[in-house]
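Extended Data, panel c. Modelled sequence:
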Amino acid sequence: MGADRATVPAIFDTTTAGFAADVLERSKTATVAVDFWAPWCAPCRTLAPILEELVRQYAGRLLLARVNTDEEPALAAQFAIRSIPDVRIFRDGRMVDGFVGVQPIARLKPLFDKHVPRVSEGGREQARALLLNGDPPGAIAMLHKLIETDPAEPRRTHRSGRCPHTYRGSG
């Protein structure tokens, strides 16, 4: 089993030799953004703190691997990097998205929201397991707790105190 998230650095450098373990394997437990950059690249230096802020906001659900294209030209060629900064996003061992150039955080947040697991994702799997194991009340309690605690959950509790999607019957 992989290292505990608390012991894995959220921002790290990777190389051709370490890419499979650093990016592909880690992307099975968290989304990994790979930033292809170079020290002489001014736009790369502009993008770096934006990516670092996203890593901070996603709190362990997004990792940032940095590839210095001057030191790792083979890795850059493998991904057909033509212009930097170039960021590729990996999830579940494969590349799922990416972008080229400096982008404002307001444009990047929706892109990463599509690929970074939500805070409640693991809890939903636990609720499903409870349901499948014959504990519907436990599953419902788990889901209500997730709705209350996930800041991105769109189905927050209604001001009436009831979940707005609660079954009300036909009568």
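The first strand starts at residue 11 and ends at 13. This feature is highlighted in the accompanying rendering.
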